[in-house]
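Task: sequence in, structure out. Protein: DinB family protein.
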Amino acid sequence: MTERRFPDMWLDPEDDPREAGDQASGEKGVLTDYLDRYRLTLELKCDGLDAEQLARRSVPPSTLSLLGLVRHLAKVEHSWFRRVLEGRPELDRLYWSEEDRDLDFNGALADPAVVDDAWHSWRAEVSHGQAYLESVTDLGARVDHHGESIEVRDVIVHLIEEYARHVGHADLLRECIDGRTGQ
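Result:
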């Protein structure tokens, strides 16, 4: 293993994939770039952990875990892009049921198959969301959400907010697992 130049940081700046590439410009570019950076940060926070570590709960009685966050954010991506923006509320909700509305966290078990399913679902929903955003030409376009008209822009900003909050949780969860703190 190569010695790190900045051992107090998650990654040395030159190794950080979030710093690769050109800086985005324009409203759509900046917003989607922020969202993609938070998505990548979630992956980085979970990197190298086994099923038990990913499923490890924070503080009882909380069900918060890194694996739960991956499942939750897959559910969030699915709900906002497929159900709301695409207007497909008939789709089954991901990691949710009438019996267990917190299935995303409650079902985050220390099982490699559960971990594989979570990452597969999350990556599929992220890919779908990215493709949707590529096709958007007007961030001011409006969709109906529970009888309220909202802009695509508002959904993107909400997703950035959702990821920012949960990546903060991921920082603390990862630190409890192996002491790593992140930038």
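The chain has one domain: 33-178.
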